[in-house]
Design a protein that fits this description.
With about 300 residues, the chain is of the alpha+beta class. It has seven helices and 13 strands. The strands form two sheets. The chain has a seven-stranded antiparallel β-sheet with strand order 2-1-5-6-7-4-3. It has a six-stranded antiparallel beta barrel with strand order 8-9-10-13-12-11. A hairpin with a 5-residue loop joins strand 1 and strand 2. Helix 1 crosses helix 3, helix 1 packs across helix 4 and helix 2 crosses helix 4.
Length: about 300
């Protein structure tokens, strides 16, 4: 197909690089590999295996197949663990029922699911309803209880009525520059998978309690939007390193809201920051014998 045709010359170039003089080979391999990764990232994960299957059995094809297999595994693990969490409720304003779901991810096979604290917070216009969860196979589960929560960290663990979830391991060994992935439903765009890198760690100080220790957050370049909150961000080994919490756009100029009120053109966005809750804060909620995880 078209994907195989696009990869064929790249595979040939990578194979050629493996036979070059050792002094010039590293740079040639690196530049060609960067091109290969950009092409592979543009191909749907479900089509990657087929796209690389028709390539000649040489060093270039081995690289492409290895990378493709790694990416398919990341997508499959993220999708299998993804759990939608939110409220099905009757609204006090319009007297209609609303379904407001965000993200989450399985921590244990028997129903423990991590998400954001703000995802499980009851809506302001709530009259009656329930907190529910759903997996990527369309199964719907009641949320049985909130096991532990930390509002300041925006982390929460709930238990749902499921016995066969596909959990993600948690990892805290993360460094800026590490590759990462996110599977979520931004603005109701179902099953959106993106990749990026870890940008930095940052400390968030509570505005209400200035004596409280700051919360460590991560900025990453994976894509998300409202509806993604609570979804896991994975490293390239399939571990959950953090989960989605906020998105912030930083405008040019002074960025004052008053400018728009006066009829002036709004400032253009210069950078969008994707902020995530560290896996350390999820681990901190997991109970130790004789200790409570709730906060």
């Amino acid at each position: 197909g078209a994907a195989t045709e696009a990869l064929a010359p790249i595979a040939a170039a990578l194979d050629t690089a493996s036979h070059l003089d050792p002094e010039v080979r590293p740079r040639f391999e690196r530049d060609t590999a960067d091109t290969a990764i950009r092409v592979l990232d543009a191909i749907r994960p479900s089509e990657l295996s087929g796209a690389t299957a028709g390539l000649p059995d040489d060093a270039g094809a081995w690289f492409l197949r290895g990378y493709a297999a790694e990416r398919v595994c990341d997508w499959a693990a993220a999708r299998a663990a993804h759990i939608r969490v939110g409220w099905n409720f009757l609204c006090t304003r319009c007297n209609n029922w609303h379904l407001d779901l965000a993200g989450g991810y399985a921590l244990t096979k028997d129903g423990a699911v991590a998400t954001c604290h703000h995802v499980v917070k009851r809506p302001a216009n709530f009259k009656e309803g329930s907190l529910i969860a759903a997996d990527e196979d369309g199964r719907v589960f009641p949320v049985l209880e909130i096991l532990a929560a930390n509002q300041r960290a925006d982390a929460c663990i709930v238990r749902i009525a499921a016995k066969d979830l596909k959990p993600l391991p948690l990892a805290t060994d993360v460094t800026p520059g590490d590759r990462c992935f996110c599977f979520s439903d931004p603005l109701d765009e179902r099953g959106y998978f993106s990749d990026g890198i870890v940008n930095r760690f940052l400390a968030r100080q509570s505005r209400r309690d200035t004596n409280a220790p700051p919360v460590t957050r991560l900025n990453v370049t994976t894509d998300w939007a409202p509806g993604s909150s609570g979804s896991a961000v994975l490293d390239e080994f399939g571990n959950a390193i953090d989960h989605v919490t906020t998105i912030t756009t930083l405008p040019g100029g002074n960025g004052k809201a008053a400018d728009a009120d006066k009829g002036k053109a709004p400032e253009r966005t210069l950078i969008t920051l994707h902020e995530a809750v560290s896996a350390k804060d999820v681990l901190a909620l997991i109970q130790k014998p004789g200790k409570s995880g709730a906060r």
